[in-house]
Amino acid sequence: CNYKAPNDCTVVLKNRSLWQKFNELETEMIITKTGRRMFPALQVQIADLDPHAYYCIFLEMTTVSHCRYKYSSSGGWAPSGPEEAQSPQCVYLHPESPATGEYWMSQAVSFGRLKLTNTPAPPVGHVVLSSMHKYQPRIVIAKTSDPRVIDFVPRMNVVFPETQFIAVTAYQNEEITKLKIDNNPFAKGFRENGQSKCKRKRVSE
Amino acid sequence: CNYKAPNDCTVVLKNRSLWQKFNELETEMIITKTGRRMFPALQVQIADLDPHAYYCIFLEMTTVSHCRYKYSSSGGWAPSGPEEAQSPQCVYLHPESPATGEYWMSQAVSFGRLKLTNTPAPPVGHVVLSSMHKYQPRIVIAKTSDPRVIDFVPRMNVVFPETQFIAVTAYQNEEITKLKIDNNPFAKGFRENGQSKCKRKRVSE
DNA sequence: ATCTTTCCCACCTAGGTGTGAACC
DNA sequence: ATGGTTCACACCTAGGTGGGAAAG
Fold first, then answer.
1. How far, in Å, is the CA of A17 from the C1' of nucleotide D19?
2. Transcription: is it a keyword of this entry (chains A, B) (predicted)?
3. Span A88-111, pLDDT tens digits
């Protein structure tokens, strides 16, 4: 076996300041049956790969503290009971895998299409999480052109602590909701700073 | 060199009856500076590949008759002068390349993201054509995991004559326009069969 | 009661259509 | 004049937001 471990490459987190703002408040990510994107999305710039070798890149959701959480408006998030069984479907293979080092380094690598879900058997591209549990995304770069052998080849793990989050089915901390609304273009309709002309309303019968 | 030629695989054109309807009228495809999708899009179902080998699949636009065309409402399309110089950027690598035979065969392979353009130096995913020239799409399956060597490995070419078309900057045959409007979901607003409630109009000053 | 999940909704982003006037 | 190209536009498809009621 003459594989060379890809342990000398460089991975830089994009939109880091936004992640930090969320992390200071304890980031929450919505999970739904049909799958919900992460916001912010994980995006990294990679350097120092072998330009001519093939790599598969994926994202793994790991549990960081082995407990279930609970939110109270007074005290925020706090542990509340033991960890529940985790689904094995917590790995997202970047859809452009496999590709050459040259390709991965030519532009930012985005995990914006990944979706979080609580459905037991979701379609590909979805990752199964448990609500009220805390996760730490881990980016894995495996030196292989075959996604099926990613567990058996040299790999590099990269973890950005500011990207950890608690999975929820509805936002708990309204400061988090506000930060999402103010920064996610798709939530523009909920902004209050004069950009949106109409307030939200429901049809009543 | 012990490559085995992929010459025994099977490629079937999807939405063939729609292609035939267009072809009977002489298909036209719009090209623009910013790039225009083809409609119908080329879609094929592939079988009999080696499930474990890697393949790159691409689409090549070849000129079929070496002349420029002209349209007249009375006589339709007719040759009108010699062929103009063709751009070498007439190859579209399917964005999921490279992938295993197993993957390519697991679902229809669609070239729906390909865009046709008349701009000299377009972004990747665009193919440069000359207006008023006739093209024949050619699907190429190359047995390699490296897109850079597709010219030097065994490859299989597949051509469906009913998919040939004339590139235009504006539709010439109004029967073609009608067929596009009736079948392309994005042109639904132009349909006349009661589905659309508003007629097209311009703001005038 | 309380906490968590689900569903439909108005409101957005993003971008694919042919039109018809203007331009060349 | 004529023929071909470009552009802004109304109108669509497709799908990502959190809100709030209802359900579990």
1. 28
2. yes
3. 889 999 999 989 999 999 999 999
- Strands B165-168, B28-30: parallel, antiparallel or unpaired by DSSP? parallel
- Name, in order, each residue with C-beta under 8 angstroms of B57's C-beta and a sequence gap of 6 or more: B93, B94, B96, B97, B104, B109, B139, B140, B141, B142
pLDDT score at B195? 41
Confidence of residue B197 (pLDDT cuts 50, 70, 90): very low
Residue B103 contacts A where some CB pair is shorter than 8 Å = no
Which tens digits make up the pLDDT trace of A39-95?
999 999 999 999 999 999 999 999 988 899 999 999 899 999 999 988 888 999 999
Strand partners, B37: B115
B180 CB neighbours strand C below 7 A:
yes
> Per residue in A161-197, pLDDT tens?
999 999 999 999 999 999 999 999 999 999 986 444 3
Q: Give the pLDDT of residue A147.
A: 82
pLDDT surpasses 70 at A4: no
Cα A101 from Cα A53, distance rounded (Å): 6
N-terminal to C-terminal alpha carbon distance within chain A? 70
- State, as a whole number of angstroms, the distance between the CA of A122 and the C1' of C7: 19
- Residue A109 has what DSSP assignment? E
Q: Is strand D less than 7 A from the beta carbon of A203?
A: no
Is strand C less than 7 A from the beta carbon of A186? yes
Q: The whole model's pTM is what?
A: 0.88
User: What whole-number distance in Å separates Cα of residue B22 and Cα of residue B19?
Assistant: 5
SS (HEC) of B69-133: EEEECCCEEEEEEECCCCCCCCEEECCCCCEEHHHHHCCCEECCCCEEECCCCCCCCEEECCCCC
Distance B110 CA to C22 C1' (A): 37
Q: How far is A146 from chain B (nearest CA, A)?
A: 9
Angle CA A35–A36–A39, to nearest 5: 160
pLDDT for residue B148: 82
Minimum CA–CA partner of B94 in chain A: A96
Q: Is B145 on the interface with A (CB under 8 A)?
A: yes
pLDDT at A145 (0 to 100): 85
The gap from C-alpha A44 to its chain's centroid, in whole angstroms, comes to 12
**CA–CA dist B82, B67 (Å, integer):** 4
Cβ neighbours, 10 Å, residue A52? 10
